[in-house]
């Protein structure tokens, strides 16, 4: 790696902001440590899962849209 290249994997892993990476089929491919700390989820319960299977609608609020408006 040259001195002008950015190691995006290292930036993703070291970021204090929570991130998860989805593929085009909305399958979770990667999560960083900040995401795991904020959510309390273990990485193995998220990576490889379809986003809406991992985070289904709130059963206590079925009409919620998730948009916060």
**Largest beta-sheet details:** 2 strands, antiparallel
- The count of strands amounts to 2
Portion in strands: 5-15%
Spans where pLDDT lies below 50 across 5 or more residues: none
Given the helix and strand composition, which structural class is it? Answer: alpha+beta
Mean residue pLDDT: 88
Distance between the termini: 45 Å
Helix content: 25-40%
The general outline is elongated
* N-to-C series of helices and strands: HEEHH
Number of alpha- plus pi-helical segments? 3
Estimated radius of gyration:
15 Å
**Which strand order spans the largest sheet, edge to edge or round the barrel?**
1-2
SSE blueprint and pairings:
Layout: H1 8-14, E1 20-22, E2 28-31, H2 33-39, H3 51-54
Antiparallel strand pairs: 1-2
Give the gist of this structure.
The chain has 69 residues and is α+β, with helices and mostly antiparallel strands. 26% of the residues lie in helices and 10% in strands. The chain has a two-stranded antiparallel sheet with strand order 1-2.
Overview of this protein structure:
The protein has 3 helices and 2 strands. It has helices at residues 8-14, 33-39, 51-54; strands at residues 20-22, 28-31. Strand 1 (20-22) and strand 2 (28-31) form a beta hairpin.
Q: Which characteristics define this entry?
A:
69 residues; alpha+beta; two-stranded antiparallel sheet; 3 helices
């Amino acid at each position: 790696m040259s001195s002008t290249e950015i190691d995006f994997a290292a930036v993703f892993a070291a970021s204090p902001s929570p991130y998860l990476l989805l593929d085009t089929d909305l399958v979770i491919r990667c999560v960083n440590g900040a995401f795991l700390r904020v959510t309390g989820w273990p990485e193995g319960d998220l990576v490889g899962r379809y986003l809406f299977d991992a985070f289904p609608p709130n059963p206590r609020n079925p009409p919620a849209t998730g948009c916060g408006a």
